[in-house]
Amino acid sequence: MKLIDRNGRLFGKISVIDLLVVAVVVVMAVALNFKNNQTHTGTSISEEKVTFQIRVRGVRSYVADCIAIGDGLYDQNYSSGGGALGHITDIQVERDPGTVISTLSDGTIILAEWEDTVDLLLTLEGTGLLNGKSVALNRVYDLGVNSARTYYTQRAQFVGSVVSIS
Fold first, then answer.
1. 1-30 b/e with 16+ CB inside 10 Å = b?
2. What's the confidence (pLDDT) of residue 157?
3. Tens of pLDDT along 124-137?
4. Residues 50 and 28 in one domain
5. Are 57 and 137 in contact (CB under 8 A)?
6. CA neighbours within 13 Å on the CB side: how many for 39?
7. Mean pLDDT score of the chain, rounded to an integer?
8. Domain containing 29: what range?
9. Do 152 and 108 belong to one domain?
10. More confident residue, 37 or 30
């Protein structure tokens, strides 16, 4: 008895092409099972509580009145993982009237006092990944000191700069 007959069947019973198709399907099933059951890199890293402070300069008083302890802080320009970056735990009024950055006609940039504005220092608490060099809130939002961004709560929107992370 020949190994492969004239019709291309192995031992005269099964086609070589059918055997190759079955082998490919088995290899794909094993690969898919391996992929779905392996440990994902991100799930073995634990998130930690992160406390950070944001300084808000020259915000109007009516906007400052809308910022409350317990409010969630969001950033609509950058992905934050679908949730709040953190929740406000403390609000300190640093200066009343507040200061705003102003550009003079000769190009000089100064901090000028502006009536009906205040400077705030917001303390927030969130969860994120810490690796010694950077903080990733909600695993995706990179937070760095001196980064100025537009933040918002449910009732207010303002520009603030991160001044400390711990």
1. eeeeeeeebeeeeeeeeeeeeeeeeeeeee
2. 94
3. 999 988 877 778 88
4. no
5. no
6. 5
7. 85
8. 1-38
9. yes
10. 30
